[in-house]
Amino acid sequence: MDRGRLPVGWTLEWVREVGQLRDAPYLLDPGTAVTLDTPAGRQAIEPALLIECGGLILVLDAVENEWLMGQRADDGSVMCWSSYGADLEFALKSL
User: Fold this and answer.
1) What is the structure's pLDDT at 2?
2) According to the model, what pLDDT value does residue 66 have?
3) Are 51 and 75 in contact (CB under 8 A)?
4) Contact 57, 51 (CB under 8 A)
5) In this structure, is residue 1 part of a structural domain?
6) CA-CA distance, 24 to 29, in Å (whole number)?
7) Pairing between strand 26-27 and 47-53?
8) Is residue 49 part of a domain?
């Protein structure tokens, strides 16, 4: 997958339908700083894709190939708190 782009066959409308989102989702800059809160502290994440979904953000971890859920911090970075595995559909239905 190209960094920052939806895979072939995916559309933002599909993301909206599956996630039952009222507002249209949109892609964020893959250069956005992302961290994951872990018991050991905050861990930097290399994002492959970031999808804004009505205030929550789904981040595809480029290393672990799993979807993380988080939100924007005051400094514009994204702070994630949980992994939803490799299945985007599952992650969207967990919003």
Assistant:
1) 63
2) 96
3) no
4) yes
5) no
6) 16
7) antiparallel
8) yes
- For 78, the domain range is 12-93
Dump strand ranges (E) for 1-95: 26-27, 34-38, 41-45, 47-53, 56-61, 67-72, 78-83
Q: How far is CA 4 from the centre of its chain?
A: 11
Is residue 54 within 8 A of residue 23, CB to CB? The reply is yes
Task: Please report whether residue 63 resides in a domain.
Answer: yes
Which pLDDT score, from 0 to 100, does residue 9 have? 84
Cα 85–91–92 angle (5° rounding)? 160
Give every residue of the chain whose pLDDT is below 70, as ranges. 1-2
pLDDT of 73: 95
